[in-house]
């Protein structure tokens, strides 16, 4: 299922964002602080109604879809993903099954599988609020996976994760065969794991394309205001940035 943003506007924040993520591709949104990345995602997972433009899932305008219908297709890991009460980890992940009330017989298996994929099976019976920041993040990713979405929207999925779990989570995301729209701050990880990148600057997409075409010294200078050298990763060949201090 593809995701298309057409001339998306949010008053004073987004000024006509166009973006297309074809089905099964991993697309990264990068940009400086305050450029509108989270606001863009919030319009996609319907935490915010845009003041203009359209978000389409599989060609359908999400504003015309029932929220439950959207949740059957799209799961989100967001900056607003919070758990207020001390549910167990299993209970938190099981919340991802809510849009699938028609298949309760599969729920236990799907929840256990999702926890295993994020290396969190050993946490199943712990209280969510007793977990470390990185453990919580992995459990929230498991909750999104338990939703069995066709589209996954991730706002800084590697937040709080140590380097080993950052790589594991992004490899997992790549292996899922779903459409992914992810805000990533680490440009080297974005280059390594995304098919396409979209650079946001002051509420506009100023560059879209393959990491090779987007992560140039000019873009780094003009958008991020840093000087960078672009080198090749010795095994994957992905562009990697070395910053001048
Ligand atoms: N509800 C709101 N009311 C007023 N301003 C807002 C609101 N939400 C976001 N903004 C502003 O809109 C701008 C874009 O915010 P957004 O969170 O989308 O940026 P971002 O690119 O995700 O930033 P960061 O990299 O810092 O997470 C910021 O200047 C922010 O202060």
From TrEMBL:
Transmembrane domains' residue ranges: none
- The ABC transporter domain sits at 3-227
Please report the name of this protein according to its UniProt entry.
Iron complex transport system ATP-binding protein
Q: Which PROSITE patterns match?
A: ABC_TRANSPORTER_1, ABC_TRANSPORTER_2
User: Keywords in UniProt for this one?
Assistant: ATP-binding, Nucleotide-binding, Transport
* InterPro entries per record: AAA+_ATPase (IPR003593), ABC_transporter-like_ATP-bd (IPR003439), ABC_transporter-like_CS (IPR017871), P-loop_NTPase (IPR027417)
User: Which terms does the record give in the GO molecular function aspect?
Assistant: ATP binding; ATP hydrolysis activity
């Amino acid at each position: 299922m593809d995701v298309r943003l057409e001339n998306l506007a949010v008053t004073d924040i987004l000024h006509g964002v166009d973006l297309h993520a074809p089905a099964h591709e991993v697309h990264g949104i990068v940009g400086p602080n305050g450029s509108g990345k989270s606001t863009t995602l919030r319009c996609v997972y319907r935490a915010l109604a845009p003041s203009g433009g359209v978000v389409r899932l599989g060609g359908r305008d999400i504003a015309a879809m029932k929220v439950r219908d959207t949740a059957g297709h799209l799961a989100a890991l967001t900056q607003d993903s919070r758990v207020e009460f001390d549910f167990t980890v299993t209970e938190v992940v099981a919340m991802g099954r809510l849009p699938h009330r028609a298949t309760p017989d599969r729920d236990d298996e799907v929840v256990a599988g999702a926890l295993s994929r994020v290396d969190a099976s050993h946490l199943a019976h712990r209280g969510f609020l007793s977990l470390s920041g990185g453990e919580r993040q992995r459990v929230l990713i498991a909750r999104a996976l338990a939703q069995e979405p066709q589209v996954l929207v991730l706002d800084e999925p590697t937040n709080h994760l140590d380097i080993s779990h950052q790589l594991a989570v992004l490899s997992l995301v790549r292996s899922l065969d779903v459409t992914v729209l992810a805000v990533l701050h680490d440009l080297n990880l974005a280059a390594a794991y995304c098919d396409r990148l979209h650079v946001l600057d002051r509420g506009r997409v100023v560059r879209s394309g393959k990491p090779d075409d987007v992560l140039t010294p000019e873009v780094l200078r003009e958008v991020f205001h840093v000087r960078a050298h672009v080198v090749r990763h010795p095994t994957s060949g992905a562009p990697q940035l070395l910053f001048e201090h």
